Amino acid sequence: MDNNNQPSHEEARAQSFFFRAVLLLTGDMRICREWVKRQSIIIQLLDWIFRGVAQVIFVNNPLSGILITTGLFLQNPWWALSGLLGTFVSTVSAIVLQQNREAISAGLYGYNGTLVGILMAVFSAKGSWYWWLLLPNIFMSMLCPVVSSALSSVANKWDLPIVTLPFNILMYLHIAATGANHPYFPEVDIQPKIPLNESMKSLSIFQLFLSVPAGVGQVYGCDSPWTGGLILLALLLSSPIICFHATVGSASGMMCGLALAAAHEDIYSGLWGYNSALSCIAIGGVFYVITWQTHLLALICAFFTAYMTSAISKVMSVFALPACTWPFCLSTLIFLLISLEIAAICRLPLSAVSYPEENRRYQKQLRASEKVEHSQQSISQEEASLKDAEGADTQLVGEKGCGESV
């Protein structure tokens, strides 16, 4: 009997070890975060930087940040270094300004700096390895915590996230202040696009398929489907729900681009997918608890964001400005402000927001505690009513005894 049971014990031990390893590397790697707190400031900074890189796409996982950074180097090493510099400067600036330490350690003061650093390099007309560009990169990244703190003081009144608004504001500030003819920091000349009467027969199904990961990669300004594939792998490692909604959101943006007769080149490069991917993730499990109703709401938000992308791109191109992530920010905030009486669509308070799987567990625990509290209240009410009934009976018996004695 013992010999027969021995393999099962070993298998159970191997399975438990596997599940512990999975829990250690997935989600927000909370165990790693607690371990990092006891290490030197260098290790802490590395953890915060890679979490900041991943927080661009709502992931709080340093291993996912490393995978995303690998994808950025695969696309363009100069862009990757600029993004890491922006993340580092933004994080250090938040420490100097004594912002919330928990938010800093979660990478929430680094991701806007990541986008500022990368997109400055992307929109620079000087191309790669123009070292003077690091000066405005450092300055604008240093301002990210300042703008974030200012916007948070307003957004917190409605319990809203600031998402990538600081990046959009600072990026527009830099591009508008320099422009295409600047002698030191010239920008790519952005002009309104002339609508092309392209035939549907010229569409490449293979390119449309690749546009989905490319749309995810465009969150970081990268049009390579290989970079997008690595980013999707990083999302899958942290949260399969986020990975699924990123894919669905990017595909929704691509389909809207086809419906709105967008240039095929823009669709293939993922420019129609990245804002929709971000909005779909935000509504589909990050700020709302994931249910099938929430999933439908996320799909609607993804299509709405694609229309917003088209409108904002056309308007801003008149001023030689890119759309950046304004469509995502405006669409997501609109969908977070809607008031619904549907119990299945539950928006979480910002203090409780985590990755979707953890958000669902949080809601289940909250409902269980509410049930326990409700049952305790009903029991206490029943006990109180029984005591009142017993007191009334005692008073009645006392009155009867007094009457008899009289």
TrEMBL record:
Listed GO MF terms: urea transmembrane transporter activity
Superkingdom: Eukaryota
Primary localization class, coarse: membrane
Catalytic activity annotation: urea(in) = urea(out)
Keyword annotations from UniProtKB, A to Z: Cell membrane, Glycoprotein, Membrane, Transmembrane, Transmembrane helix, Transport
A Pfam family of this chain: UT
Region (Disordered): 366-406
Cited InterPro entries: Ammonium/urea_transptr, Urea_transporter
Subcellular location(s) of the protein: Cell membrane
GO cellular component terms, semicolon-separated: plasma membrane
Site residues, Important for channel permeability: T325
Stretches that traverse the bilayer: 78-97, 104-123, 129-151, 163-185, 205-222, 229-251, 271-290, 297-321, 333-355
Topology of this chain in the membrane: Multi-pass membrane protein
Family: Belongs to the urea transporter family.
Protein name per its UniProtKB record: Urea transporter
Organism listed in the record: Channa striata (Snakehead murrel)
